[in-house]
């Protein structure tokens, strides 16, 4: 690839669980994404389409919207994070991606409990059950995650940065 500098790669871990979420969501959604709270902002993870330079990789950006977002890099199918050559990778980003790769549903749920917004659709969670779960029933179904039964309230805020 002439014209492109070698990009720094860092092992994130096994992506089987993350890809299972995205694969299930692609059956229901045109452009599935996951938003995760970080120590100094939010990350948005979305699948690169078939026309992208690296199809089916996971793009990692901040969550500032399409035209204003910063692209930090991509997670490759082999579990490597390939950093953008144009911006510095925030120091907390790699550890956060590793936690997400290890326990995607748990980290997504922690985001929702911490922020009050669903990690999948980014909408405000509207009831105690969804807030406790960290996501709504429809998103749980779309992404193939179990939604808690009434009375199964779980504390999740501490799961995010531990």
What does this structure look like?
By secondary structure, the protein is of the alpha+beta class. The chain has helices at 16-26, 93-102, 104-115, 128-133, 137-143, and strands at residues 9-11, 33-38, 41-47, 58-62, 71-75, 80-83. The chain has one domain. The protein has five helices and six strands. Helix 2 crosses helix 3 (104-115). It starts with 8 loop residues before the first strand and ends in a 19-residue tail after the last helix.
Give the strand order, joined by hyphens, for the main sheet. Answer: 1-6-5-4-3-2
- Class computed from helices, strands and strand pairing: alpha+beta
Strand content: 15-25%
Helical residues, percent? 25-40%
Distance between the termini: 39 Å
Mean pLDDT: 86
Pick out the low-confidence regions: 154-162
What is the total domain count? 1
Instruction: Choose one word for the global shape.
Output: globular
How many E-type strands?
6
Main beta sheet strand tally, sense and closure: 6 strands, antiparallel
Please give the count of helices: 5
Radius of gyration over alpha carbons? 16 Å
How do the SSEs run, as a string of H and E?
Answer: EHEEEEEHHHH
What features would you highlight for this structure?
162 residues, disordered C terminus, alpha+beta, globular
